[in-house]
Amino acid sequence: MSTPEAGKPVYNVKNPYLARLKSAHDLSAPEAPKHTAHYEIDLGDSGLEYTPGDSLAVLATNDPKLVEDTLKALELTGDEKVLNPKKEEVTLRQALTTSYLITEPDKKLMNAIAEKTSGASPLADLLLPENKEPLQKYLWGRFVVDLLEENPGAKFGAEEFVGLLKKLNVRLYSISSSQRAVGPEVHLTVATVRYHSHGRDRGGVASTFLAERLTPETPIPVFVTPGKGFRLPEPEEETPIIMCGPGTGIAPFRAFLQDRKASQAKGKAWLFFGEVSQHTCYFYKDEFEGYLADGTLTRLDCAWSRDQEQKIYVQHKIREAGEELWQWLQQGAIVYICGDAARMAVDVDLALHHVIEEHGGLSAEAAAEYVEQMKKDKRYRRDVY
Questions:
Q1: What is the CATH number of the domain that holds 25?
Q2: Distance between alpha carbon 199 and the CA centroid of its chain, in Å?
Q3: Residues 139 and 182 occupy one common structural domain
Q4: 59-87: buried (b, 16+ CB within 10 Å) or exposed (e) per residue?
Q5: Cβ neighbours, 10 Å, residue 331
Q6: Which domain range does residue 331 map to?
């Protein structure tokens, strides 16, 4: 990302740019198991610049209904004056809307509830060091409001209460556009987090902010976070690239492909994409098929986990294509992975080791060394979360 010119504003968490929504559309069909959408955000005359591989930091606000439910449980009006994290005096309602995390109880709040209820709350036992796991289980799907409703004996003043909350932090989204192609706007690919627990509909703060609470007039506080090593080779280089991005992990690779087309990049490009079903979740289908047709994309392999009896994921497609993939690696290909760290990235890593072992004729130890060397040479790059 280029360095800001002298006199140009620097946007960051303390000074975000107030962008506006230009347009949005669903990427998933109504019958898909989860809602995923494409957002186009106007950067206006901000001068904000980004590079494929960067993330957009979004400072979302809390759901107004959840704020009102929390105020009701506190038995406060919301008009009480408190200090926000910047030490500015605001109303409690405004502080709970824009500044504090109310979907995840802090330990300070739990300890205060246990004290105020003289140990009568189940939290008293759960907070003991030996009960780490039961506490995690208890907290799953519970927001701050649930703890207040379950412990009506714990009363808080407005200022005391906000002092027991975590700060509402930014949410980082991989950017799914290239400025070479779209100019002063930025695109995001976001799955909306929604679920039901303990008798209440729940949602992710930032994903529901984007999906449910934006109008063209709503300010969206944003700034760019550089992607460090998650970068394309220079357009004139012949280096092949292999991209693996199931689900919303596709975001940076849409940006990569937009950029490669706009810059007429040399070198082959191979994309692995996976989702639940081709019929409900084939994100950016027309774009990717267009890139195949015009040569921006050399090969596209898709894995649809539920379109057949046996589940197929991207790691299975990588193993299937092992012989050709090994050839690409021998030609110096860079492997990029984006998406779920807990399962997908682990399974893809195992598949990559398997391909190198089988098609490179190497022992397990030698294949592991090959992968380590790829990492040292910056030919194995991951953006996982």
A1: 2.40.30.10
A2: 27
A3: no
A4: bbbbbeebbebbbebbebebebebebeee
A5: 12
A6: 241-384
- At 90, phi and psi to the nearest 5? -140, 170
Angle, helices 364-376 vs 344-360, to 10°: value is 120
Do 102 and 144 meet the contact criterion of CB atoms below 8 Å apart? yes
pLDDT tens for the chain, 385 residues long, are 445 555 678 999 999 999 999 999 999 999 999 999 999 999 999 999 999 999 999 999 999 999 999 999 999 999 999 999 999 999 999 999 999 999 999 999 999 999 999 988 999 999 999 999 999 999 999 999 999 999 999 999 999 999 999 999 999 999 999 999 999 999 999 999 999 999 999 999 999 999 999 998 999 999 999 998 899 999 999 999 999 999 999 999 999 999 999 999 999 999 999 999 999 999 999 999 999 999 999 999 999 998 888 999 999 999 999 999 999 999 999 999 999 999 999 999 999 999 999 999 999 999 999 999 999 999 999 999 8
Q: What φ, ψ does residue 57 adopt, rounded to 5°?
A: -85, 125
Beta carbons within 8 Å of 13's beta carbon, 6+ residues apart: 57, 59, 170, 223
The residue written with tokens 């739990």 in the block is 110
pTM of the model: 0.94
Of residues 248, 281, 289, 268, the one with CA closest to residue 335: 268
Q: What tokens appear for 379 in the block?
A: 């030919």
Note whether 103 and 128 are same-domain residues: yes
Structure token digits, residue 183: 């100019």
In contact, 268 and 298? CB cutoff 8 Å: yes
Residue 319, domain member (yes or no): yes
- Is-contact 186 177, C-beta < 8 A? yes
Out of 162, 180, 209, a domain closes at: 162
The last residue of one of the domains, among 114, 138, 162, is 162
Q: Verify that 248 and 133 share a domain, yes or no.
A: no
- DSSP-based three-state secondary structure for 204: coil
